[in-house]
Amino acid sequence: MVIHMLLELKDINAGYGDLHILWDVSLGIERGEIVSLLGSNGAGKTTTLRAISGLIRPFSGSIYFNREDITGYPIHRRVEMGLSLVPEGRQLFPEMNIVENLEMGAYTKRAEENFQDALEWVFNLFPKLKERKKQLAGTMSGGEQQMLAIARGLMNRPEILMMDEPSMGLAPKLVLEIFNTIMKLREEGVTIFLVEQNAKAALDISDRAYIIETGRITLHGPAKELLSMDEVRKAYLGI
Amino acid sequence: MFEFSAYVQILTSYTILGGVYGLTALGLSLIWGVMKAVNWAHGDTLMVGMYTAYWTVTLLGIDPYIAAIVAFLLLGLVGMGIHLIAIEPVIEKPGGHEATLLTTLGISVILESVALILWSPNPRSFQNVYKSTYLQFFGMRTSVAEAIAFTVSIVSIIAVDQLLKRVKFGKAIRAVSQNPIGARVVGINVPRIRLFTFGLGVALAGMAGALVATFYPNIRPLAGYIWDIASYVVVIFAGLGTIYGVIFAGIIIGITEGLGAIFLTNAYRHILVYIVFLLVLLLRPQGLFGKALRRV
Q1: Cβ of A88 under 8 Å from any chain B Cβ?
Q2: What secondary structure letter does DSSP report for B65?
Q3: pLDDT (tens digit per residue) in A180-236
Q4: Which residues have CB under 8 Å from A209's CB, separation 6+?
Q5: In a domain, A154, yes or no
Q6: Among B118, B100, B122, B88, which residue's Cα sits nearest to residue B40?
Q7: DSSP-assigned beta bridge partners for residue A64
Q8: Quick one: how far is CA B108 from the chain centroid?
Q9: What residues make up the domain containing A214?
Q10: Whether A104 and B296 lie within 8 Å, measured CB to CB
Q11: Mean pLDDT in residue range A1-18
């Protein structure tokens, strides 16, 4: 296999202890793309993100980032390379205020120097965060926390931003706002890997998508093609 | 009956003692309050700090305050060793924070046994000029050794508080304690931050032990207990997770102990401390300066 994409997974098997969740998962993301990973609950979406980000080590297979084999790298080294994750459940620092959470988002050396620029950038994307710099993350609403989680991920000036179900538990209006932000990010050159249960919304903004069922990739292709396929429409779009 | 000035003298002494309680509680506050690992060996690391001062002063003849720096550095290394043996292997496991109660109890037994074998159970103390020199102010007097311990206590507590609030490393300590997964996601090397946090907490305990040793006449292998219990009370009293609260909690407990000594006689002075402590737990379980728990 020729490694040429920004991020590539090759035959990843992963899970937790005796629990084998991902079976030979291979996928790739080009620079500048929005790529979605879709699937139902428990299909292995979050596990895929955990393996890429380094929160778990795969049993076998390889992960390449910028043509470098990062399979054995610890998570902090991957973040330093520009792989950022907006994790499931947001995982903010509840007793820190908005600015402190963003400072922590810029913890890496790659982010430290351009802290002020990055701060201005995310405040432009999320003006609400700017209005309440001193508010503690733990006292914010779900939608605001999601915005802060995305902003924190962006503070690292990532080459690729991975998002785990950013629309989960949010009101439809906020979901729209989050997806609009994702499109805006792509225009600014951020590569996006989006994991979603909200398949319609994700396919609408994606270039390509992968569909995962019980730990295996069963379909992939351009988002528009997937949107028109009967099996996708029945299983994931409820049409 | 005492004269009024005698009361003032007693309360002054106990205020200073309370400040020292704050110092002995500082390392524990960092490890337990901030890092949320239980260090049952906290008092024993204090005790090792006392012996470090004792031996470096009596054998090498160096100044006790240089000995305190030696104790800080030595116990920092010991602390990182304890962390690698007793904390890091269990802390991320389910129930890991509770497990540290048992693993550090093991460390505690080891430290006490080794100290008993090496140095016998006999209490020791060492002569130094700071202990036998007194400061007089407003008719009250205190030894220079205690006044220095009190001052170092306040300075160290402010320093650690500011470290956590303003320095990147300190903020990372808070981030790891508030959300380890979030900390890993932003690229913090979590095991390394924990190693240094625990090391710093034990280093502070070692320094506290060395400073207490300058005026405490009872350096012995089980000496840690008295200071250990005081430290736990101070940390809970202040509220888990607050550093600056430790200085006020320490002084309040010191003064309460002094009032107990005046009104209940010396032998029963601790009763008043624990009555106040229980009242605080009932009325304000998060401690005087702590915040109620919040989750994301």
Answers
A1: no
A2: H
A3: 999 999 999 999 999 998 898 999 999 999 999 999 999 999 999 999 888 888 777
A4: A35, A36, A37, A38, A202, A203, A220, A221, A223, A226
A5: yes
A6: B100
A7: A8, A69
A8: 15
A9: 32-55+77-237
A10: no
A11: 88
E-only strand ranges, A53-115:
60-65, 68-69, 83-86
* Cβ within 8 Å of residue A168, ≥6 positions away: A88, A197
Would you list the domain boundaries of chain B? 4-233
Q: Which residues on chain B are in Cβ contact (under 8 Å) with A137?
A: 296
Contacts with A, B 159-188, CB within 8 Å: 168, 171-172, 174-175, 178-179, 181-188
Smallest CA–CA distance, residue B118 to chain A, in Å, is 42
Contacts of A159 (CB under 8 A, 6+ apart): A6, A31, A66, A81, A82, A83, A191
SS3 label, residue B23: helix
Find out whether B143 and B13 touch, Cβ atoms under 8 Å: no
Residue with tokens 């929160």, as numbered in its chain: A55
- Selection from A57, A120, A53 nearest residue A80 by Cα: A53
Domain count of the fold of chain A? 1
All residue ranges of chain B with pLDDT < 50 are 294-296
Distance CA B49, CA B67 (A): 9
Check CB contact under 8 Å for B178 and A95. yes
